[in-house]
Write a structure and sequence with these properties.
With 129 residues, the chain is an alpha+beta fold. The protein is 48% helix and 21% strand. The protein has a 3-stranded antiparallel β-sheet with strand order 1-2-3. Helix 1 packs antiparallel against helix 3, helix 1 packs across helix 4 and helix 3 runs antiparallel to helix 4.
Length: 129
C-alpha cells in the first residue's frame, strides 16, 4: 500500500505546484462565458489590493471543452488536492482504528481508486485498470 500512497502524494504534489504557479500569477479562477455563441474561458485575476481584472484565455466551439477547462481552475484543483490528502491522512491519523468494519480494506480500495486517473503514468504502482 505504501507504493500507492507515495505515488499519489507525488502526483498531488505535481498538481499542487502547477496550480500554485497559476495562483502565484494572481489567477483566482477561470470562468466560462459565451461570446457570439462560442465558449470563452476567462482568467479572473485578483490583486493584493482587492481589485480584479480578467483576460480571455481561449475560445472554443460549442463542444463543452471550455466548460470542462473552467471547472478545473487552480482554486478548484487545490481544494481537490486537499480533500484527497485528507483521505490519505485517515490512516496516518488513526481514524480507521475501532470502526468495527474492514475500514483498512475500504480505505486501501479508496486510495487505489483515487490513483486510477494516473494509471497512464509510468510510475503507476498497480495493474492498469
Amino acid at each position: 500500500m505504501d507504493d500507492y500512497i507515495r505515488f499519489l502524494r507525488a502526483r498531488l504534489d505535481e498538481q499542487e505546484k502547477a496550480a500554485g504557479t497559476a495562483l502565484g500569477h494572481n489567477v483566482r479562477c477561470w470562468e466560462l462565458e459565451w461570446l457570439w455563441g462560442y465558449e470563452r474561458v476567462v482568467e479572473i485575476y485578483e490583486f493584493e489590493d482587492g481589485t480584479q481584472d480578467s483576460d480571455s484565455v481561449a475560445f472554443f466551439g460549442r463542444d463543452g471543452l471550455g466548460e470542462h477547462i473552467s471547472f478545473n481552475d487552480p482554486t478548484y484543483t487545490l481544494a481537490d488536492i486537499a480533500a484527497k490528502r485528507k483521505i490519505l491522512d485517515y490512516e496516518k491519523d488513526g481514524y480507521l482504528n475501532g470502526l468495527g468494519i474492514d475500514a483498512w480494506g475500504v480505505w486501501t480500495d479508496m486510495v487505489k481508486m483515487i490513483c486510477e486517473p494516473f494509471a497512464s503514468h509510468p510510475e503507476y504502482p498497480g495493474e492498469r485498470p
